[in-house]
Design brief:
The protein is an alpha+beta fold. About 35% of the residues lie in helices and about 15% in strands. It contains 5 helices and 7 strands. The strands form 2 sheets. Strands 4, 5, 6 and 7 form a 4-stranded antiparallel β-sheet that branches. A 3-stranded antiparallel β-sheet has the order 1-2-3. It is globular.
């Protein structure tokens, strides 16, 4: 296989960014239509988002399992499936994780909605994009930053804001499906304490590494969390 040239790289980056833009639009449309509403179950909202994806994105992919979580189901990281369905409450955090809808495009996207006026949950909603932006700045500022170092930076940012960083990793290479079990994972494909390789590098085949940052913050004592996942190095 030939080494990718600048045009190959540009087209791949554009495809990843375009897929993420469509995922953002899907999330915004789901919120505009009031799909994240109290009284609906997680699987019901998942099905409605799947219908909307076929309408907005033209995708034929059906959602395998649940892509929407609420309340205490937002505490476990993705890959740890909570038991049973759950009805969304009037004062809940709700996360939507679009990975199954975007798998063919090699990317992912997750966002968090807060229902009600609970100050802690509202603070979480505000902190998620701010900490994501801070992590992106740390990534851009240090060409030699490793997965281990960025994970440590995220842990420090989360603790400073009063949250716990959930999960054994905080993101993965775009184009790769993250392993649910760390024992089965490639360390250098994840933003994790086990990855001591620089994130700014080329991958097998000579492609530039593009990363998905998965910021999963939790408040274990109050049994809620939130997720903000998007491309780290592309807009």
């Amino acid at each position: 296989m030939a080494t990718p040239d600048r045009m190959d790289e540009r087209l791949r980056a554009l495809d990843l960014a375009e897929a993420q833009g469509r995922a953002r639009a899907l999330f915004a449309e789901a919120a505009r239509r009031g799909l994240f509403a109290a009284g609906r179950s997680e699987y019901e909202v998942t099905d409605r988002i799947g219908d909307l994806a076929r309408e907005v994105l033209g995708t034929r992919t059906r959602c395998p399992g649940r892509i929407v979580r609420s309340g205490p189901h937002t505490v476990p990281p993705y890959g740890d499936e909570p038991p049973g369905d759950r009805v969304i409450g009037p004062n809940d955090t709700v996360t939507a994780h679009f990975g199954p809808l975007l798998a063919a495009r090699g990317t992912d996207f997750a966002h968090t909605v807060v229902l009600g006026a609970d100050p802690a949950r509202l603070r979480l909603r505000e902190d998620l994009p701010e900490l994501f932006a801070a992590a992106r700045e740390a990534f851009r500022a240090d060409p030699g930053i490793t997965g281990r170092q960025l994970y440590a930076e995220l842990q420090a940012l989360a603790a400073k804001s009063g949250w716990t960083l959930g999960g054994w990793h905080a993101g993965h290479l775009a184009g790769e499906t993250p392993a649910a079990n760390p024992m089965c994972a490639r360390a250098d494909a994840h933003i994790s304490p086990d990855n001591d390789r620089p994130l700014h590098r080329t991958t097998k085949g000579g492609w530039r590494a593009h990363w998905l940052l998965e910021l999963h913050l939790t408040d274990p004592q109050s049994a809620f969390g939130g997720t903000h996942k998007a491309l780290l190095d592309l807009p």
